[in-house]
Design a protein that fits this description.
Blueprint lengths: L7 E5 L10 H12 L4 E5 L5 H15 L7 H14 L6 H4 L17 E5 L1
Parallel strand pairs: 1-2
Antiparallel strand pairs: 2-3
Helix pairs in contact: 2-3
Length: 117
């Protein structure tokens, strides 16, 4: 069976055991690279979907800039943008029922790693 992959693959684990000596991430990476992927963006733990959307938007915006940055540099730029993002206080936060999420906290962006070119 012939398989053709895009230049970049995004892989998000929902329930990753980070104590498993890395094998849960290594095996899929090896398979994707063997199938022709040039780079893989992987998360090492589940991240809030709103924070992930914000980070991916920043990543792909950075990748479209001229001159085109390396993928790892674009991810770094997106992470720096996350660090600079102020907290968002919705209705429940405004009412004092919950704290405002802190997008700058590493839990929202540090899960992501770019492998490959």
């Amino acid at each position: 069976m012939e398989c053709r992959l895009g230049a970049a693959v995004s892989l998000q684990y929902r329930h990753t055991d980070i104590t498993g000596h890395g094998q849960r991430i290594i095996r899929p990476l090896q398979s994707l690279f063997a199938a022709g992927a040039h780079s893989v963006l992987a998360s090492h733990w589940a991240v809030d979907s709103k924070a992930t959307t914000r980070l991916m938007t920043q990543l792909f915006t950075a990748l479209q800039q001229e001159p085109h940055p390396r993928k790892a540099e674009a991810l770094r730029h997106a992470m720096l943008e996350a660090l600079a993002t102020p907290a968002e206080c919705g209705l429940l936060c405004w009412l004092g029922w919950q704290d405002a999420p802190q997008p700058a906290h590493p839990a929202y962006w540090a899960a992501f790693t770019m492998y490959g070119e």
